[in-house]
Design goal:
Blueprint (H helix, E strand, L loop, with lengths): L4 H14 L2 E6 L1 H6 L7 H7 L1 H5 L5 H4 L7 H15 L7 H10 L3 E6 L5 H4 L7 E2 L3 E8 L8 E2 L1 H7 L25 E5 L8 H16 L6 E6 L10 H10 L4 E5 L14 E4 L3 H5 L10
Parallel strand pairs: 1-2, 1-7, 2-3, 7-8, 8-9
Antiparallel strand pairs: 4-5, 4-6
Helix pairs in contact: 6-9
């Protein structure tokens, strides 16, 4: 590893220029960089007072929660999806990434369910989201492997959410169109998660892409993927780097920037926000 920051940026630029294929692995850190912070307690208390009174302090604590009254649970998830999945965010870091890899054979692997990569220019066919997508919901049982678009739900139920409590009217909430049971956003939170659309789609496409890497110069650019669910992005990025001859890893992480000892001679780590690092690269072209 190179310790000097300027030298590391220079080496990062050299590796990127030399690469033919780029895997972008991304976790919650890059969403936070765009203003979607799942650990923000202040905004959570203001937007979801009913949940705050019950002891929930941020969006991260709500991941996978299903044992609340449906009017409170769905009131939160509907308003949160409207904000995170369909609301405006700071696009700078995503536009910068696009400018850096637009001429590369690039693929995105991300645990984020906000679709910010696709919403800001990355092709959906080159994106794998194994944790799902806030744009869809499913039966919580589940009674089938079907998933359904969330936007009609948002249009009907967002106006009904009580701003003081964050709840829907008791007994008035969406149900599964197939069996009439409880619903949940189509995001990985338990064994009930309907994962088939993502594994059969982006998962298979990523495997084919990896299968075609032989003889290509690969750069793995991993951004903001911590230790809460490392099996989906962080560890696969490390493993792909180890198993691909000549591959290099660049890890950008504000809290967990360390790299495995056996990858130190072909990796760089930056303990910083992605926007701070990527914006320093000579070929970056973030929006003005």
């Amino acid at each position: 590893m190179v310790s000097d920051s300027d030298e590391k940026i220079k080496l990062f630029s050299i590796w990127l220029d030399a690469s033919e294929s780029v895997l972008i692995g991304a976790g919650a850190g890059i969403s936070a960089d765009a203003g979607v912070d799942y650990t923000d307690e202040v905004s959570f208390a203001k937007k979801y007072p009913g949940l705050y009174k019950l002891g929930y302090r941020n969006k991260l604590m709500m991941m996978g929660v299903t044992n609340l009254p449906q009017e409170l649970l769905l009131g939160y998830y509907i308003s949160n999806a409207a904000e995170v999945r369909f609301g405006p965010v700071d696009m700078t870091v995503y536009k910068t990434l696009i400018s850096l890899v637009k001429k590369k054979d690039a693929f995105v692997l991300t645990t984020n369910v906000d679709a910010l990569f696709v919403r800001h220019g990355f092709h959906a066919e080159r994106t794998f989201t194994p944790q799902g997508d806030y744009a869809f919901y499913q039966c919580l049982t589940p009674c089938s492997q079907d998933i359904y678009p969330l936007e009609p739900i948002l249009e009907e139920y967002m106006p009904l959410i009580d701003k003081q409590t964050g709840s829907l009217p008791r007994g008035r909430y969406p149900v599964c169109p197939r069996c009439g049971g409880n619903i949940y956003l189509n995001v990985r939170g338990g064994r009930w998660f309907v994962e088939r659309p993502w594994m059969e789609g982006g998962g298979k496409r990523l495997n084919r892409w990896i299968g075609n890497l032989a003889g290509k110069k690969l750069l793995v650019m991993e951004i903001g993927s911590g230790l809460s669910t490392p099996m989906w992005v962080r560890w696969p990025c490390e493993q792909l780097t180890k198993l691909t001859e000549g591959a290099r890893l660049v890890r950008i992480n504000l809290d967990h920037s360390e790299v495995p000892p056996d990858l130190r001679d072909r990796s760089l780590s930056f303990q910083a926000k992605a926007s701070e690092v990527l914006g320093l690269l000579p070929n970056s072209n973030p929006p003005g």
